[in-house]
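Re: the multi-chain job from yesterday

Posting the exact lines I submitted so nobody has to dig through the queue logs.
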Amino acid sequence: MNGQRLSYAYAVVRSSDPAAQRARSALAGLRGVADAPVALVRSGAAAAAVSAVPGAEFSEAALKSRLEDLDWLEATARAHHLVIETLAARTTVLPLRLATVYLDDSRVERMLAERQEDFTALLDRFDDHVEWGVKVYAEIPALSDPAEPVPSDPPDTGRAYLRRRRQHRQAREETWRAAEEAVRRTEQRARGLAVERARHRPQQGTLARLPGENVANDAYLVPRLAAEEFRDRMLHAADDLPGVRVEVTGPWAPYSFTAPLEGVRQP
Amino acid sequence: MTGHDAYDDERPLAGTQVALIDLLDRLLSGGVVITGDVVLSIADIDLVRVSLRAVVIAIREQLEDQWAPVLPDRTPTAYDHGGHGDEPG
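And the result, structure tokens for all chains:
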């Protein structure tokens, strides 16, 4: 399989003429994963953005090790996203999971034909909707950092130490309460504008570069007409809460709202 | 087929750099998973675990504890989606 070309599928769009034409013009000149040109494969009511990728990189065995390589993962994720984002600027898209790979384009066509009703239903749901990411951050004073004594203070006494500890604990608790309040507010403010919510895990680790602790990492599906209002509401949700920040990312293609089709299997 | 004319390239320019971690949240746990005729049954590769190893475990050994829900239970709402089966809402 290693010398073989495989077909990497990025996203599904409608195959009807206006949608397919828009998709084709969006894809013209675009380079996808493995720097390959991206084409539209149509079958029935659905079409997929597809490009050829080398089997040496995308065979099952190769993928398992490549996915552990953060540089490769980033390059692939960004290329995948570029194709989806480019399509999403022109038409309704249904993103596929990273590294959805077929033996050849005819297998993609077959898959599209078999699943066209599911795809159409999801595309109908996503028409004129965008995804916003909403993350709440709290600047929690570190547990191991009970405020240092001020140098000019008299030498520390046991009592002063305990007071500092108590004040520190109170500061932590207050920030947590403010963070909880911010999360509640984002949820309340989303009502009436968002039609769906998905939750991601709070972000941690080397890639979580923003300051503070990420306490909520949500995604909302929002009608395009309400998109700006939604963003404004979220950005100001924590204005009067000390130590708490709301970050909004997007608009994204509806990556986080594709669950109903997950796990669909051949009968 | 309503609303196709609403797409007027109002989004940020394609290629705008998004944070990798926000992207991986979506690409490794979101997106339609199709099983069946895929040459690679991607469903067999646990991408969430991959992202954990790639992104997080390098600096945090006590991962499972760290990822316990940070906030007290939040009441699920009518539009709650359930988070792709990572854990029950």
